[in-house]
Design goal:
This protein is an alpha/beta fold. It folds into two domains: 186 residues, 3-Layer(aba) Sandwich (Rossmann fold), CATH 3.40.50; 152 residues, Rossmann fold, CATH 3.40.50.2000. Helices cover 47% and strands 14% of the residues. The chain contains 18 helices and 13 strands. The longest helix has 18 residues. It is globular and about 60 Å long. The chain starts with a strand and ends in an 8-residue tail after the last helix.
């Protein structure tokens, strides 16, 4: 039986890892072992997801916590290298684009452990985003690249990656959603937040470009207050954003305007909130895909997206603070039917396992 190390660091990682863990376990061919780097350490952003997605407690927990990009990346490398040397896997799977993704991929490459990048090939074209650097570097050094969509394949081929290293498996985030969909629908989180289904907007904002600068944050708060006058807003506040709002004294302004501020929500409750919403306003990545899958309009408050298929085939649109009002009005005035890209079907984890079985070269064969 081949051992597979699955790296989880941030909330979206857990949602991508969970279906793969279950599929590997069920195959009888692989023994999955879960490594939690501790990059996200808020219980609602990490620990609760294990219960929501029926994951066991991690086999290893690095507990790296916060820090600069260099500090975090270095600490993950140091911690995971010890584990990989002592408990060498047959395969290493890294997911997404956080610092832990690149750090563990570097360890795998240097120790000559066959390394897979799940959700490979996504590109925003914006190297001011730390995640873009992580994506580019991880895809260069990983042995196998599992992509979610045709544009990701094209990006990798354009960068000179051999096609033999690329397998399009689809969007594994949607496997997670389908695993727990009945419970998500039953949760009725909108009732807990005091809003009616289909009438409200969900806000998720955490990127430094939106929340770190005082002037930008003030403008963002003003824009949300303006929107609240037309559509009730529920805002589960990321810890980073909560700290910035508290420092600037803007929590009271949002609350007084009627914006419903909430703690970060566990996965099932959060997806229930999204499922019942009229629109989502975000700067996150995965939720652009989930809203496309569900046919819910999404306004992404960024200059670019590494998921352009959510615009060309989905319900997503890029907005600025200047265009947000108009975009929300236009989006909420339309009816959407889900247009799901190929392989966005809840069966991605099975394709991942099949690809490992098809490749299945032994440890050390790259040398």
């Amino acid at each position: 039986m081949k051992t597979v190390h699955l790296i989880a660091a941030a909330r979206p990682n857990f949602m991508k890892v969970a279906p793969l863990w279950h599929a590997l376990r069920a195959s009888g061919e692989f023994e999955p072992r879960l490594i939690h780097t501790g990059q996200h350490y808020d219980p609602n952003l990490s620990d609760a997801i294990f219960a929501d997605l029926s994951l066991p407690q991690p086999d290893f927990h690095l507990g790296v916590g916060s820090g600069s990009h260099a500090t975090q990346t270095g600490n993950v490398m140091i911690g995971y290298e010890k584990i990989a040397i002592e408990h060498r896997p047959d395969w290493l799977v890294v997911v997404g684009d956080v610092n832990s993704t690149l750090a563990c991929a570097l360890v795998g490459a240097k120790l000559r452990v066959p390394t897979v990048h799940l959700e490979a090939g996504l590109r925003s074209g914006d190297r001011d985003m730390p995640e873009e650097i992580n994506r580019l570097a991880t895809d260069v050094i990983a042995d196998v690249l599992w992509t979610p969509s045709p544009d990701a394949d094209a990006n990798l081929l354009a960068e000179g990656i051999p096609g033999t290293r690329i397998t399009r498996v689809g969007n594994i985030m949607l496997d997670s959603f389908e695993m727990v969909r009945p419970e998500v629908e039953a949760a009725a989180e909108w009732e807990a937040q005091g809003v009616q289904r289909g009438t409200y907007g969900v806000v998720t904002l955490h990127r430094p470009s939106n929340v770190d600068g005082a002037d930008r944050l003030e403008a963002l708060v003003a824009a949300l207050i303006g929107l609240q006058r037309r559509i009730p807003l529920v805002f589960p506040v990321h810890p980073r954003t909560a700290a910035r709002l508290a420092q600037s004294g803007m929590v009271a302004r949002l609350a007084q305007a009627g914006v419903r501020l909430a703690e970060p929500l566990p996965y099932k409750r959060f997806m229930s909130l999204v499922l019942g919403s009229r629109i989502v306003i975000t700067d996150s990545g995965g939720i652009q895909e989930e809203t496309t899958y569900l046919g819910i309009p999404c306004c992404t408050l960024r200059n670019n997206t590494e998921r352009p298929i959510t615009i060309s085939q989905g319900t997503n649109r890029l907005v600025t603070l200047a265009t947000l009002d108009r975009a929300v009005d236009e989006a909420t005035g339309q009816q959407y039917q889900p247009r799901r890209p190929e392989y966005w079907d809840g069966q991605t984890a099975a394709r991942c396992v099949a690809d490992l079985n098809a490749r299945s070269y032994p440890v050390g064969s790259k040398e």
